[in-house]
Amino acid sequence: MPRAEVGTTKHLANKMKAKGLQRLRWYCQVCERQMRDENGFKCHTSSESHIRQMLLVGEDPKKFIEQYSAQFKRDFLTLLRTSHGEKKIDANRFYQEYIANKEHVHMNSTKWVTLSEFTKHLGREGICRVEEGEKGGLMIQWIDNSPDALKRQEFLKKKERMERGDEIRERRAIEEMVERAEAQRKLQEDDRPKELVREEGEKVVLEFGKKREASPKAEAEKSDEAKAGEEEKDAAPASVPAPAKVAMKMEVKPKKNVFASMGKKDKEKDKEKKPELKRPMSEAERIMKEEMERNKLKNRQRVA
Ligand SMILES: [Zn+2]
């Protein structure tokens, strides 16, 4: 029975009759014809056109199987890409969508015996991402390998990396801030005990002890250093912290008196020393003046 030409009323009528899914075993892949029943299929297989086709296939069945396989794969993937993009879908459910097109290449004419075998093949080839679904079936996901998609993926990866970099930098900055705050807090804690020590008066006592050692030296040495000692003595009461105990203030006062008396002694010594120091200076000056006057006289004599 010759096949109705595309566009003829017979072709359209056949199409209308062939609604819904039909029995796979009544489909002739070689002639790409679906027969509606056993009888129809029998008639078809005994037809001249079918026998001619089958003879061709018989010459090189491998070639035909490869052709059907390639076509099946191409159609399957085209539909997967166009209808689901890169979304994950149950392989079995998608196969129902694929075979809904009556002109599809039937899987029994390909080299793949089962859908799961074909799905695994797609996974191995890296064409699709294949994994076990929660309900046990295989999940299939098309991988976009087009140059545009790869570029987009690269861009997204870069963006993600940059964002992660920003995140890390931000986290580091926050950590540094926390560390600084911690250090500040520790410093303040370190300061507190110092204040307490001062209140006890221990440190103040030690400081004055040092100055006491220094003052006798100053007495023995030149008046200049003694003056420096005086300055220290003057500065010492100022350095004592204001919020100090009354007892400590009592401690300070007698020491102050001692220094004051020592200072007076130094001043008395200065009065004695200063004229002594000035005498040789004035003598030298006198000698120089005499010499200068002599020179002046000589000059005047020359001029005269
Ligand atoms: Zn046929």
Description of the molecule:
Belongs to the KIN17 family. It comes from Sphaerosporella brunnea. Residues 208-230, 263-296 have a biased composition (Basic and acidic residues). This protein is rod-shaped. It folds into three domains: 1-59, no CATH class; 62-145, DNA/RNA-binding protein Kin17, conserved domain (Arc Repressor Mutant, subunit A, Orthogonal Bundle); 202-303, no CATH class. Strand 4 (128-132) and strand 5 (138-142) form a beta hairpin. It contains ten helices and five strands. A three-stranded antiparallel β-sheet has the order 3-5-4. Helix content is 73%, strand content 6%. Helix 8 packs antiparallel against helix 9 and helix 8 (202-220) runs parallel beside helix 10. With 304 residues, it is mostly helical. The structure holds zinc ion (ZN). Zinc ion is lined by residues 28, 30-31, 33, 44, 50, 53.
